Amino acid sequence: MGDVEIREGADIPFWNCKWIAGSKLSILCPNSYMIATNKEASVEDSGFWLEDRWHWNIAWEWDQNNAELWSAASLLAGILMEVWPNQDGVCENEAAALKIVWKAKVPHKVKVFAWRLVRNRLPSKVQLVRRGVEIADSEMICNLCNLNNSQDDTTHIMVRCEVAKKIWNAVYIWLNLQGVNEVVSLCHEHMLQFFSKLKNKVDKGREISIWMAVTWCLWRARNGTIFNNETGDIDEIIFKIKTYSWWWG
Length: 249
Ligand SMILES: [Zn+2]
What we know:
Blueprint: H1 25-28, H2 30-35, E1 47-50, E2 53-56, H3 67-80, H4 92-103, H5 108-118, H6 125-130, H7 154-160, H8 162-175, H9 187-198, H10 206-227, H11 234-248
Antiparallel strand pairs: 1-2
Helix pairs in contact: 4-5, 4-9, 7-8, 10-11
């Protein structure tokens, strides 16, 4: 990722070098590492280029009936999906945000979610259109606020949406915190600001659990409005945020 140019450095160990946001894959994905056939494999050994696209190809031995290994494999796939050897630089702030994500004490699925959020890879309608999915203009609005000039885009959902703003404000009041500047244009900038404002005010590690609880609940509420006709009740979302952040904190 970014700081590692693999084409120049084929000898970077796939499992045991901190090449993904400052962490080793053997630590992030211990179950996959356990069954990897070649624990010394380099990044270059672990995939191949085909028509300008990188394909990961990890050799391992496993029992396909073992559900635990399936979930280990999908965690690894979730991480690798967004990473390939010669990817253009991840900017410094983004790398810092990803590092914080991986240290957070939250369930793995939440980490993968936050990873995708920071990398701007969540399937918002704007992202889907970018990937060639056809969505009518009238369907592009954000279903949380339903405002005519809104767009179902990750930064909107997490930061700019009227519903998101009300929720963040409630969180700021709950934590007795000065709000994050709303002009941030990217989610990872929001995370880093929130993180620095909350530092030393709550137990170490809770800053990020809270931020993840808010974004996780916003994303789930957004999905609920689209797929289950839910209304995205603000009090209910805030209740869930508090519950998760205590649970994970
Ligand atoms: Zn909205």
